[in-house]
Specification:
Elements lengths: L1 H9 L8 H9 L3 H6 L13 H22 L5 H22 L2 H29 L7 H9 L6 H31 L7 H22 L3 H4 L5 H35 L1
Length: 259
């Protein structure tokens, strides 16, 4: 009895594998796991909630969308801040604490957006201080408060947390929870994807100025200089998002292989 008990734990027999071999077999990816790996990416497919994805993307996009809504005289930013952006921000914080797949991508995107907008402002702020680049962010703070012409702290909090972090969050949720699974080739080009997103955001800014009668007055006049500087800033922003996305995808691959 004693010998029969010890033997399987030591070496096993020809007819029955040892415990070590059994553990290695259990640790190996199952056929189902291999099927769930997205071809060519090593990323593990996981079910997502489209409701959570839609809510997170809406919350991330609303701060920047509030600007054209105000410029086109559709909705004051003071109203969108109080009744749309702030309530959704509270919901997003609660969702982030839940630690779902979508929330994990949202936190990554928010972090990447903060880093990206800081890199953007490393180019922009010297231009602002030398009066080369007009700065509408203090006026943005005044619009949010609603009763003052300018407010620098509120304006820059909105720029970093709302605009920079928010649109970064929307981008990462779309890519990480939905897009990369349906279009796995995108996972191999995260930096190009981020740059394309930066150009997309920039085109929305330019369209807001060009198509609105108040765009030049409220934001900044369009010129070759302002177009070039703003495009460069958005390319920096998108590139940083892409670099961070590449890092996040590498993390997801490690998690998939360990599953």
């Amino acid at each position: 009895m004693s010998t029969a008990t010890v033997a399987p734990y030591q070496t096993g027999t020809a007819g029955s594998p040892s415990i070590t071999t059994q553990r290695r077999t259990a640790a190996a990816p199952s056929p189902i796991t291999r099927i769930l790996l997205t071809p060519g990416t090593g990323l593990l497919r996981r079910p997502v909630s489209l409701a959570r994805v839609g809510l997170l993307m809406t919350a991330g996009a609303l701060p920047v969308l509030s600007i054209p809504l105000y410029v086109f005289n559709l909705l004051p930013i003071s109203a969108s801040a109080r009744f749309l952006v702030l309530p959704l921000a509270i919901i997003v914080i609660a969702m982030a604490l839940h630690r779902s797949l979508e929330a994990r991508w949202a936190v990554r995107g928010f972090t990447a957006g903060l880093i990206a907008v800081t890199a953007y402002d490393a180019l922009r702020m010297p231009m602002v201080f030398t009066k080369i680049w007009p700065d509408f962010i203090p006026r943005l703070g005044g619009w949010i408060i609603g009763d003052v012409p300018t407010n620098i702290p509120v304006g820059y909090a909105w720029r970093y947390i709302g605009d920079g972090g928010g649109i970064g969050m929307a981008f990462f949720v779309l890519c990480g929870a939905v897009g990369l699974w349906r279009f796995p080739a995108l996972a191999r080009r995260p930096i190009q994807l981020g740059v394309g997103y930066g150009i997309f955001v920039w085109s929305g800014l330019v369209a807001t100025i060009a198509l609105s009668s108040r765009g030049t007055e409220l934001l900044f006049p369009l010129s070759w200089q302002s177009l070039g500087l703003s495009l460069t800033g958005h390319l920096i922003y998108g590139s940083v998002l892409g670099i961070y996305l590449r890092r996040a995808l590498a993390t997801e691959r490690r998690l998939a292989l360990a599953a």
